[in-house]
């Protein structure tokens, strides 16, 4: 049973930085894709970034390219999302998700992930 626990959210001014963490437990993750999604009030959940655990390949939404970096620590079974140059439109609840053997074409599809964390709130003030 895979379990995901996010941490690191908070309130930050525009232009600031935050680092989110997603601690995974329950099994080995060599075949998994780990993703970050976010949901703003009144909006649908959207893809932010993903990383393939086996080879470290990364994927980003266009809106965060150049500002956000996803990474993993194999020993700690933890995935990170470093968020720089934050904007008010980055505000939302950020969720960590996991999916085994996910093809590249589907990494942005939230319905392809079968394990989710509880979410962590990120608020960026203008």
Task: Summarize the topology.
Elements (H helix, E strand, L loop, with lengths): L2 E5 L2 E4 L4 E8 L6 E8 L6 E7 L5 E3 L7 E6 L4 E6 L8 E9 L14 E2 L3 E6 L1
Parallel strand pairs: 2-11
Antiparallel strand pairs: 1-3, 3-8, 4-5, 4-9, 5-6, 7-8, 9-10, 9-11
SSE order in H/E notation? EEEEEEEEEEE
Rg from C-alpha positions?
13 Å
**How would you describe the shape?**
globular
Instruction: Specify the biggest β-sheet.
Output: 7 strands, mixed
Q: Residue ranges: pLDDT <50 for 5 or more in a row?
A: none
Beta strand %: over 45%
Helical residues, percent: under 10%
Global structural class: mainly beta
The total beta strand count reads 11
**How many separate helices?**
0
| CA(first)-CA(last) distance | 40 Å
Look at the structure and give the mean pLDDT.
95
Summarize the structure.
The protein has 126 residues and is mainly beta. It has no helices and 11 strands.
Structure explained in plain terms:
The protein is built from no helices and 11 strands. With 126 residues, the protein is mostly beta strands. It is globular. The model has no long low-confidence stretch (mean pLDDT 95).
Descriptive key words:
about 130 residues; single chain; 7-stranded mixed sheet; 4-stranded antiparallel sheet; about 0% helix; mainly beta
